[in-house]
Here is the input.
Amino acid sequence: MNLIVEREKSFEGLEQRIQELRSRGGADAGAQIQRLESSYEELRREIFGNLTPWERVNMARHPRRPLANDYIALFDQFDELHGDRHFRDDPALVAGFSKLRGRRLMLIAQQKGRDVKENIRRNFGMVSPEGYRKASRLMTLASRLRLPIVTLVDTPGADPGIGSEERAQSEAIAGCLTALSKAGVPVVATIIGEGGSGGALALALADWVIMPQHSIYSVASPEGCASILWGDASRAAEAAERLCLTSNDLERFGIVDEVIAEPLGGAHRDTPAFTATVIEEIDAALRRLEVQSPEQLRERRYEKYRRIGSWQEDARRGIASAAT
Amino acid sequence: MPMPDWLSIRRDKQIPAEEAGLWEKCPSCGEVLYSKDVEANLSVCSKCGYHFRMHAYDRINSLVDDDFVEIGADILPGDPLGWVDKRPYPQKLEADREKSKLSEGIVTGLAAIEGFPVALGVMDFSFRGGTMGTVVGERVTNLFEEARRRRLPCIVFTASGGARMEEGMLALAQMAKTTQAVERFMNDGNFYMSVLTDPTTGGVSASFAFQADIIIAEARAAIGFAGRRVIEQTIRQKLPDNFQTAEFLLEKGHVDVVAPRPRIRETLVRMLDYAVDRRRILSVLKAVPEFALG
Ligand SMILES: [Zn+2]
Here is the structure.
């Protein structure tokens, strides 16, 4: 079970008690409610105030975490476009024309399901080659029409199935990265939940990468990493500690440009306000970027990724250590 | 198929086998082979055609005409995450340097192949499973930038388990860095060929390996995005033997050519001959005096 959901369950009794007192009313209820509420707040701060990397992994996978459709609903308009023109439409990747504050744009998102039935249809947000090909097709179109590209990333990873291999998953992801490299328009990516490896990066080669505080973005899933390192997927919590997958780590490394604080207990505690804040920041990033020429955008995007890494170079180059 | 004569010339250049490993057993057919013969045969089993993994410098020696001018050798790994699992990451790197006689997972440089000046990168699985960390990403990017500056065709031999876990997202971001460098290079009208060798998977296959104009796969190589084990765990059934092999990819339409190792060089040369105007390249090279190829 999700670790955060478990923690939340431990509060249910207390929450119920406060609710009961509220509805009962009475002379001494006010003081009692206040006392209970303050200890409730204190407990929550204690538990959610300083989440470990593994707790954040669970937060990013929380069943009530805002999903792509919660964000898409806040755009002025959205007209979904379907298919890769070759094989099929991939429901794990939702894309189409959109408007935000009157500005025309291309919106491309990974969509998980809210329940089991929808998750099966959405393949748990794991995109297949045809999904990535739909994305790169629309990225190329956006660039040609001079529409900024806004992406929402939320995937455990690219789909690892037989069909995906048969249809060249690698080539499809490389195709997205190439399309984003070429794009002469602003690209703003937001890691709304899980940023799982290459399947996430395919939509996140961007001028500006936004990351909500408790989202994760990782080279490998903690479970996969643990099973490679120790042959034991149950040691995922330890792996999460090492992978530097939290927003703080990634901002420090220059992988992420902006971290947005979440309400205590996570974004889902106040989905309407939180998603609105994220949209606000996407809009602000677009405003900063859209004054740049296509050449400037491409050049700066190139230089941005050119610098990422950490290596030592020979002194004769005059750079002793080119850490980020 | 008669041996092309360049192959017999190459034989003389092989480093003699070390005393310790005079003989080796073919893991495919079980034949006991004299190590020197295996090396002379480009590390291919003379009985069944099994391809042993090949050292990056042996591969380079088997391809280039004369000199190989290495670039990027001075770019060396750090430990950005302070990574420790069973051992600290710097110790793992040290052990791999010892074992592989390489400073990182790829060797890059400039050379001529059958008179064609090229930029050449060769990955080696024996260093951290050929994983792409920031050094592999930086060396690949430098190679394509250098090739673009000199308008040289670029050839990269891939062998990789994907992005390097020990460098976290810094490793994954190298996919973004390299694809941009390759895109710029190709967009300028330059020619890029990748040669996918065993194994090519994950972040390397999903970036510069599959971006090439012409993709050649070495016979029998395992190539794919997800690892075989991951897929088997996900679908809870065993995959057929030929799944994700070079031959499977050819059938599915993912690669242009499959060639056994002894025919890779010949194939590259034939492609270069179609794709590249040799006179144009030589005239550009003359204009770059610090590097002139004979
Ligand atoms: Zn054999």
Summary: Chain B has eleven helices and ten strands. Chain B touches chain A through 62 residues (CB under 8 Å). Residues 1-52 of chain B form one domain.
